[in-house]
Amino acid sequence: MKTYLVTGGAGFIGSNFVHYVLSHHDDVKVVNVDSLTYAGNLENLAAVSEDERYVFVHADICDRSRMRSLVDEFDPDYVVNFAAESHVDRSIENPSVFADTNVLGTISLLDAVRDAWMGADGPGERKYLQVSTDEVYGTLSLDEPDTFFREDTPLSPHSPYSASKASADLFVQAYADTYGLPINITRCSNNYGPYQFPEKLIPLMIHNAQSHEALPVYGDGLNVRDWLYVEDHCKAIDLVLRKGRVGEVYNVGGHNERSNMYIVERIIAELAERLDDPAICTSLIRHVEDRKGHDRRYGIAPDKIKEELGWEPETAFEDGIARTISWYLDNQEWVEHVTSGTYQQYFEHMYGNRKVLS
Ligand code: NAD
Ligand code: DAU
């Protein structure tokens, strides 16, 4: 029996991870700690809300005493920190909330597990896993397509978001080096799939194209991202928790580099065909002012996780994007709710008069 304390489990990757763990292991308990920012949505977890192995706790990771008491109460084997402000464009508008959640929130969690685990009995098999990002490495050049981010690539973040994630990684490493805290860090490339908030490239383009709205492509649209289907990321995190060497960093990615223009044109073609709608076409594309400090290319070398843990992505991009488009077409109500704020009422409805968990 393993207990996972997952933070940020109501967000995109976190909710996929909760589903992954509950559907791949019988002997688990999953405690989901989430403050439900605009990006957190309990509708993502409606299918497991009655599962006895699942508990939701409404709390902010920056609340230090609450984090400590949750670690005492649930005594997790694994703490997996997904909770973050995750959108680069928002970090350019308002950097300080990124420092609060991504840096101070991480320190709050690290203190909670250090104080609970590093006493006379030691941590045993327990682990803290920081869900980080390839963006901490900075950018690669389009002119050197055979160069990739490796685990020993120096950290060189450019956006306030990636600076906050790199800073958190350094604290995680410092707690391992200073206090002997058993940790792993995973650094993954761009995820796509169900439950992604439609402020990110793929769901935004699906949403806008369907309603014949403009498709805003930053700059020349030739920036490259390394896209991974979210379930493959969840599998990698679970594998690192259970089998990864303590103290190690693992890069996660699928050698699936695509330009933003390729992604947008692929979505247009797929949607136009599925909906039999010729108005969904490339004339909807608008190149708009570039993102400030826009990283040109990300590309992950996932050799270490492949060699040590046997992890490889299982979902080809063509299948993954088709499944993702199907999910958004089949879940229009979800999109309406997250864009209208109805999910806040959903939270009140589900939890206002119901279980008080701690
Ligand atoms: P998301 O924005 O969809 O979800 C973030 C979740 O964290 C939300 O549920 C939100 O309510 C919660 N949260 C935010 N602040 C909180 C706080 N102070 N206390 C408790 N909960 C809080 O993010 P995502 O895209 O699912 O990313 C999850 C993690 O994975 C992040 O740490 C991100 O840096 C990392 N990551 C994301 C990607 C990607 O492509 N999306 C790739 C690599 C790594
Ligand atoms: O690489 C991992 C990172 O991927 C994660 O750490 C982040 O949390 C996640 O948000 C994502 O960051 P990106 O900035 O790469 O993702 P985003 O979807 O915002 O943008 C992808 C690319 O598309 C990027 O080059 C900017 C471009 N873009 C984005 C939007 C929202 C556009 O051209 N137009 C848009 O409207």
Order of helices and strands: EHEEHEHHEHEEHEEEHEEHEHHHH
Helix content: 40-55%
The CATH homologous superfamily of the domain at 2-195 and 227-255 and 297-317 is called NAD(P)-binding Rossmann-like Domain
In this entry the ligands are: nicotinamide-adenine-dinucleotide, 2'deoxy-thymidine-5'-diphospho-alpha-D-glucose
What fraction of the residues are assigned to beta strands by DSSP?
15-25%
Structural class: alpha/beta
**Unreliable parts:** 354-358
Give the CATH level 1 class of the domain at 2-195 and 227-255 and 297-317: Alpha Beta
Strand order of the largest sheet: 3-2-1-4-5-6-11
Brief summary:
The protein is α/β, with parallel strands linked by helices.
Walk me through what this model shows.
The protein contains twelve helices and 13 strands. The model is unreliable at 354-358 (pLDDT under 50). The protein has helices at residues 12-24, 64-74, 88-93, 96-117, 160-179, 201-210, 230-243, 260-275, 303-309, 317-330, 332-340, 342-351, and strands at residues 2-7, 28-34, 54-58, 78-81, 127-133, 183-188, 191-192, 215-218, 224-226, 228-229, 249-252, 257-259, 285-288. With 358 residues, the chain is of the alpha/beta class. Helix 6 (201-210) runs parallel beside helix 8. It has a domain at 2-195 and 227-255 and 297-317: Rossmann fold (3-Layer(aba) Sandwich), CATH 3.40.50.720. Strand 1, helix 1 and strand 2 (28-34) form a beta-alpha-beta unit. The strands form four sheets. A seven-stranded parallel sheet has the order 3-2-1-4-5-6-11, sandwiched between helices. It is globular. 2'deoxy-thymidine-5'-diphospho-alpha-D-glucose (DAU) binds next to helix 6 and strand 8.
